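Incident log, structure service

09:12 report received: a user says their structure output differs between two submissions of the same chain.
09:20 pulled the input from the user's history:
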Amino acid sequence: MLLAAGALVVAGGIACVAGRRAAHVAGGAALLLAASPLLADPMPGAILIAERVVGAALAGELLWLALRGRVVAGSSSLGWSPLALIGIAAFAAGIGAQRIVPGAGPPEALGTALALFVVAAMAVAARPDGVHAGLAALVLVAATGAVRLALSGSTSALESLLVAGLGVAAAGTVALLVPRPEFTPAEPAPDDADPLSWVAIGLDAGAPARRGSVAGGTVVTGKRGGGPSRTGRLR
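09:34 re-ran on a clean worker, output below:
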C-alpha cells in the first residue's frame, strides 16, 4: 500500500513538471497533493484526507484555468521516461537511507521525498523561469510533507491543513505568473453597401487600369455587378 502511494505521488510530481498539456500539469499536481497523506503509517483519518483532497482539487483547478489554451513547455526538458528512471533510483536510495537515518515514519515516505526533491531539482535546472519554478515549488511542498512523515510519523490535522494551503498558494502563484495572451483588434469586415469599401489598390503602376487598381496615379473604383465606375487622381 505504501509503495503504491509513493509511486502515485512521484508520478504526479513528474506529470506536474514534465506535462506538455494543461490537463496533465493540473492532474499531476492534484494527484501529487492528494496522495501525499497516504504515505503515513498508520493511515490518516478521513477528515485529514478530505482536507488534502479539497486542497489538491483547488490547486489543480487553478493550474488548469491558468494554463488551458496555452502551449506548456514543461518544466523539465528530459521528458517522462528519463525523469521516471531518475525518480525510481532516488526512491530506492531513499528507502535504503532510512536504515542509516532511522525515523518514526515508513521508509517509503523518505524514498518518495528524495525522489520528489530530485524531480524538482531537474525541473529548476532545465527552465528556471517563474512559471516552471512555481511548479517545482509545488513539488517541493509535497516533498517536505513526505520528509515530515518519514522522520516524525503521522501529522496532525492542522499540519495537513497547512501543507494543503501551501500547495494552493504555490498553484495560485503559478497562475499569476502565466503570461496573458495579447489580443489585437480585428479589422472590420468590408461593408457591401459601400461601393468603396471593397476597392483594392494595386501597387503595380504599369498594370492596366481595372477596378480597385492604380494606373498612372489614377484610382479606378466601381461597384460589383458592372455598375458605374469613378476615377480620381492621387495627390
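09:41 both user submissions now match this output. Likely a transient worker issue. Closing.
09:42 reviewer note: The radius of gyration is 30 Å. Helices lie at 2-18, 22-35, 46-67, 80-100, 107-126, 130-152, 157-177.
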